[in-house]
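User: Can you model how tryptophan sits in this protein?
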Amino acid sequence: METKARILTGHRPTGARHIGHLMGTLESWAKLQETHECFFLVADLHVLTTNYQPEHLQDNIRNMLADWLAAGIDPQRSAIVLQSAIPEHAQLALLFGMLTTVARLERVPTYKDQTRELNLQPSTGLLTYPILQTADILIYKASVVPVGEDQLPHIELAREVARRFNQTFGLVFPEPEALLSKSPRLPGVDNRTMHTSYGNAILLKDTPEETTRKVMGMYTDPTRLRATDPGHVEGNPVFALLDIFHADQADLDEIKSRYRAGKIGDVAVKQLLAKSLNDYLAPLRERRAVYYNQPSQLMEILYSGTARAKSIARATLKEVYEKMGLLYDRGLDEKIRAA
Ligand code: TRP
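Assistant: Here's the modeled complex, given as structure tokens:
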């Protein structure tokens, strides 16, 4: 039997997913299930590097899982894994910390940006974020990691750590490769990048009415004062979203030329976008509501994926312990208890 290359990727469970997640990552994850053995990680420990809101964490996980499944992540084929439930991730991260200098971690661009933005003293948890991510990937010996461009420095670190480990202790890990998502980041309703924390996102779980309201309030062409002024299509987030969600390309070309000629108003174009979005999202929204309203089924899916992952994680950690000269013995716990 031909074995499929293994993928690990994941998200921090910061809440419901938006249409940028759908087009940028979830649809491509769903496709990759056909060609790869996939592990999709709910990176709940990573959430704690920037904010702790214990009262929201479990609902955020539930929202994210419902969206993942609705977008086509198939728990029959792929394992959905809860990071905090597999202590081997944290244990391997601790060991990888022994192979990584502080200076190397301080050079990671996401760390530099975040410490500047957060304007506070960074925790060691934030500094070692990419080491935990490295452990997430290497504990499953994944060879392919689908991510957005912002994550490339983390994958680069994972490759370095794999190489250093293999050179120092003997061959255990593949050097994982990033698989860059093709679709560019979507603009949000205010024309900044769509981002949950910016409040400019259209969520998969939004009702059609909410979606329409958000779209009608969108930023468009600021140079256009009257519907008869010639409009700009480029750099206009309404058209950026229409390009993706409007099914009829010929129709869209026609609308663009009318917009450029000042023959169609912003309201009409936004109404068209709202309809395109709602049409596109309708079946997905139906599925996500069903999943969200069955939390015990969601948890069962999460537990069974985590169980599948756990045995692989344990086997890798055993190998690492032995290579590093640590004592790994399944009977060790009992011996310690009996001592
Ligand atoms: N850091 C990733 C993000 O913010 C989430 C993540 C955690 C991840 N562990 C991972 C992605 C391992 C890929 C592989 O999007």
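A couple of observations from the model: The chain has a mean pLDDT of 95. Residues 113 and 119 are 10 Å apart (CA to CA).
User: Helpful, thanks.
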